[in-house]
From TrEMBL:
<dbReference type="InterPro" id="IPR016181">
    <property type="entry name" value="Acyl_CoA_acyltransferase"/>
</dbReference>
<keyword id="KW-0012">Acyltransferase</keyword>
<feature type="domain" description="N-acetyltransferase">
    <location>
        <begin position="2"/>
        <end position="204"/>
    </location>
</feature>
<dbReference type="InterPro" id="IPR000182">
    <property type="entry name" value="GNAT_dom"/>
</dbReference>
<dbReference type="GO" id="GO:0016746">
    <property type="term" value="F:acyltransferase activity"/>
</dbReference>
<protein>
    <submittedName>
        <fullName>GNAT family N-acetyltransferase</fullName>
        <ecNumber>2.3.1.-</ecNumber>
    </submittedName>
</protein>
<dbReference type="Pfam" id="PF00583">
    <property type="entry name" value="Acetyltransf_1"/>
</dbReference>
<keyword id="KW-0808">Transferase</keyword>
<dbReference type="InterPro" id="IPR051822">
    <property type="entry name" value="Glycosyl_Hydrolase_84"/>
</dbReference>
Amino acid sequence: MSIIRPARESDRAALYSICLETGDSGEDATPLYADPLLLGHVYAGPYLSHAPDFAFVLEDDQGVGGYVIGTPDSHAFEDTLEREWWPGLRAQYSDPARIPSDQRTRDERITALLYHPPRTPDALLTDYPAHLHIDLLPRVQGGGNGRRLMVTLLDALRDAGVPGVHLGVGDRNTRAQGFYRHLGFQELSRAPGSVTFGMTLGRP
């Protein structure tokens, strides 16, 4: 039996762990990174700290096994992180800018995002200003858990008056792509290594 509830600060370690254990296009990325916190610093922690009203976890008898996190206004969120999230991490990690991008380790490629976080393309903002991330450990995959998590966040975004939401997924993660399409997301664009999907959030 599993429940979905709002995420809280005490879930931070679980979110970081799940982020790492699903960080290789849905597979366990633990062997790939020397620093086990790096992926969480970029893809999980900021949302728990700066968009807690749009962070939900799925919990079973073994603890937190999945989460969905997002923000209703991507550019405002990015501005907040530039002021309040990235500076603390930049004090802990050195900028790998002097290392050619094709020679960087996986850790260095993620560390570069602390200094040069990507901005949401302006073309997405009018129709799809929100964005989200969802990750589930294998033990809670299936059985409708992913859909339940997504519906919880999509309803929260809809209630906040958000017109649409987008997300990115690795181009190798065909299982996730099928999941998003089944939920009603439409493919918006492709870039090397990633696919962007979007969904409008009209009232039911």
